[in-house]
Amino acid sequence: MVLGVSGGIAAFKACEVLRRLTESGHDVRVVPTESALEFVGAATFEALSGHPVRTGVFTDVEEVPHVRLGQEADLVVVAPATADLMARAAHGMADDLLASTLLTARCPVLLVPAMHTEMWEHPATRANVSRLREHGVVVAEPARGRLTGADSGKGRMPEPAEIVDLSRLLLAEGAALPHDLSGKRVVVTAGGTREPLDPVRYLGNRSSGRQGYALARVAAHRGAEVTLVAAHSADLVEPAGVRMVHVGTADQLRDAVLEASDGANVLVMAAAVADFRPVSHVDHKIKKTDRDPDALELTRNPDILADVIEQRRAGKLDTDVVVGFAAETGDPDTTVLEHGRAKLERKGCDLLVVNTVGDGRAFEVEDNDGWLLAADGAELPIPHGSKSRLAARVWDAVAARLGGNVG
Description:
Elements: E1 2-5, H1 11-23, E2 29-32, H2 42-49, H3 65-72, E3 76-81, H4 83-90, H5 97-104, E4 109-113, H6 117-121, H7 123-134, E5 138-139, E6 143-146, E7 152-156, H8 160-173, E8 185-190, E9 195-196, E10 202-203, H9 210-221, E11 225-230, E12 242-246, H10 250-260, E13 266-269, E14 276-278, E15 298-300, H11 304-313, E16 321-328, H12 336-347, E17 351-356, E18 367-374, E19 379-386, H13 387-401
Parallel strand pairs: 1-2, 1-3, 3-4, 4-5, 8-11, 8-13, 11-12, 13-16, 16-17
Antiparallel strand pairs: 6-7, 9-10, 14-15, 17-18, 18-19
């Protein structure tokens, strides 16, 4: 891999990106610009990568580095990518080693912007981003947050964990992400709902939220306008370029989903919604002597996916594609896949992702697998891999149902 670093204050984050990539077993060559070395010294990159660092094309000329690095790379990532770097890349300039590497690369290329909001929103930058995407370059969506000095806004470099996750996806896919969700409004749910019993205890589940966050992240990088309705999640980094809505209970999730889905093209229900909640909730901690533990009364929570489908059938929602998730375990009489097929027919959604849970699968882990079932009878096995890769398969199927309109 080649990790390019251009000259912005976010260059310090490239050190953490580099550390995570090398610890994952990747051989990484760092190619900074001269201005990047004003922020982070060459010795730091050399110590973390185990390779010498150079910026110009006249060092080790006999190795022809300005051509060889791009030719041999499986992935090129530039983090941060400044407005200047993207302008030079968009117009095919080759005035330093990093620009030359971008021009010769035939592998997936990921540029991770970092700049002030005014620079990101400038027509010249927007035109350069569009041009780069037309050339097959993946230009990540920047995050919102604190910038240089006291300024805040869109343009902040995403966190290293998100950059590495996207890098893993591009390496696994071996190709750039399509920008086929541009202009589409997408709602994704994630995490596990919690139903309070008292101020200390609740009924919940083991969902970490990772799959829903991955779905939102990949959709944003494929051009969608994404709202992520998140119940309890395992301290996950909020995806860059995504609008967040935080909820706690199933009732709150239902209200947020129905509000966010008004006018949305796609709804993906990846949250693990508690099936039941306590009939009563008290505002003080229940003592051991306060109640018989066998007397806990429960009532059913709303079936949010069924509610959405019913509202769509009644013409109250015009969502084009609704995707459900089914976390299943087999039993002596029925397999996981058979449970999934029955649930798809019962729920009436367009697509259903079926996951096997238990024994360290699906919940609280980094990877996932399963099946993608469609209402028309199509079934796609999804092999074991990162949750972002499973998300990519879901969005492939969604894009096909939306007509494959490319923005």
